[in-house]
Design goal:
It is a single chain. The chain is mainly alpha-helical and about 450 residues long. The chain has one domain. About 75% of the residues lie in helices and about 0% in strands. Helix 9 packs across helix 19. Belongs to the GntP permease family. It comes from Mucilaginibacter frigoritolerans.
Length: about 450
């Protein structure tokens, strides 16, 4: 019954947005309240669940997305995006620019949370798209596939790191196995799959579109790359900090503070304001106007993401994820690695959150892992792959991609949802293959 209710709510959401043409945020509120009533949540708790869901997801993302949009706008209007695109094409050639972005996305995705990496890399994607008149989805999706794979498969991302601890797995071993699976998953779900998507129409957000500037007005190549990738550099340094064996508590607290993604984005924006703004002869007033425009452009995206958080919270509070997982474990007699993947995939489709799907599935299959019936490192990767399956309208990543690339819901399903599903299936196949040798 719970699955039927979730299916009904998802169909209702799609119809409200695509057929009725209702604002997605309002549609999410209606569907979240409907789901709460149908799933038996006490009526007094439904509104508080909606508010908590919105607050939780925006509390994590709003600073990052807003500051990232400002930095992206700065990179665009200063000419840095144009310069970066020119350098990349000069080094790799226009023919291989897609592969250059894929490699960049994978390297950047290892230390960065997905949401941060998305916000940082979109301006770079769009600069290449506008400069060389290339299809946006064809160029952008492979890079985002890299980010998604690292988010689901590789530590130090939250879900795989938590699963490693729960299963007493080895982080270095899991990383090596994850890397071996990630490469083919990215290639197949990225450049290979994207080659079939060249005709999808996409007019990305205007905020990242800048007019071509004369060469003598562009910032230098080092300045452009350094400023655009400064958040990545800071977060990579933070990730490496624990290996320096520093024990001074004051230094450790300072490093943790500076390494917080919100602080990193603030530092990067302040540095960029000087290096790409004031240093290039722009006034602070002109930069403030550009930052204001960036906020206007992403306001609806923030509301939509908040709405998806409300829906997820209602489903979580109802306990439906535990019901689904328990029913699956009792009714299905599958190889443990396949069972872990399937439970994570169904919860992911139901709730939308990869992290929640992974952690919920882990709690169900943990006894099998701890009893020694399966390789714990491979179970981490199997659940991680399942947690990426079929991202759709209840996932904030779906809406980020749709709104930034300005796509229809149908085309978002054809591109984004299909890509995530390919990554998930290739991940499971890779796990099963490795299981024959380790």
């Amino acid at each position: 019954m719970a699955l039927l209710i979730i299916l009904f709510c998802i169909i209702l959401l799609v119809l409200l947005v695509s057929w009725v043409k209702l604002n997605p945020f309002i549609a999410f509120l209606i569907v979240s309240i409907t789901a709460g009533l149908l799933l038996g949540i006490p009526i007094g708790k439904i509104t508080s669940s909606v508010q908590k869901g919105i607050g939780d997801i925006l509390g994590q993302l709003v600073i990052i997305i807003v500051l990232g949009a400002m930095l992206g706008k700065l990179v665009a209007v200063s000419g840095a995006a144009q310069k970066i695109a020119e350098v990349l094409v000069n080094v790799f050639g226009e023919k291989y620019i897609q592969w250059a972005l894929v490699a960049a996305g994978f390297i950047i995705g290892i230390p960065l949370f997905y949401g941060i990496g998305f916000v940082l890399m979109v301006p770079l994607i769009f600069s290449v798209v506008y400069k060389y008149k290339l299809p946006a989805v064809y160029i952008g999706l492979p890079m985002l596939a890299s980010l998604s794979v690292t988010h689901g498969f590789l530590p130090p991302h939250p879900s795989p790191t938590a699963l490693i601890a729960m299963f007493h797995a080895s982080m270095p071993t899991t990383f090596i196995y994850g890397f071996m699976i990630a490469v083919p998953a990215i290639i197949i779900a990225g450049p290979v799959f994207a080659s079939f998507l060249k005709k999808i129409p996409s007019e990305p957000l205007e905020t990242f579109r800048a007019k071509d500037m004369p060469e003598d007005k562009l910032p230098g190549g080092f300045n452009s790359f350094f400023t655009a990738l400064l958040p990545v550099l800071l977060l990579m340094l933070t990730a490496a900090f624990p290996y320096l064996h520093i024990t001074n508590p004051t230094v450790l607290k300072l490093a943790a503070f500076i390494g917080d993604p919100s602080i990193v984005m603030l530092i990067a924006l302040l540095v960029g304001t000087y290096t790409l703004g004031v240093k290039q002869g722009n006034t602070l007033g002109k930069l403030a106007d550009a930052y204001g425009d960036a906020i206007k452009d992403i306001a609806l995206i923030l509301l939509i993401i908040g709405g998806s958080g409300a829906f997820k919270e209602v489903l979580t509070v109802s306990g439906v994820s535990g019901q689904i997982a328990g029913q699956l474990q009792q009714s299905l007699h599958l190889q443990p690695l396949i069972l872990g993947w399937l439970i994570a995939a169904i919860i992911r489709v139901s709730l939308g959150s990869a992290t929640v799907a992974g952690l919920t599935a882990a709690g169900i299959v943990a006894p099998l892992v701890l009893a020694g019936h399966v390789n714990p490192n491979l179970m981490v990767l199997s659940i991680g792959a399942g947690s990426l399956a079929l991202s759709h309208v209840n996932d904030s990543g779906f809406w980020l991609f749709k709104e930034y690339f300005n796509l229809s819901i149908k085309d978002t399903f054809k591109s984004w949802s299909a890509m995530e599903s390919i990554v998930s299936v290739i991940g499971l196949i890779g796990v099963l293959v490795l299981n024959q040798f380790v």
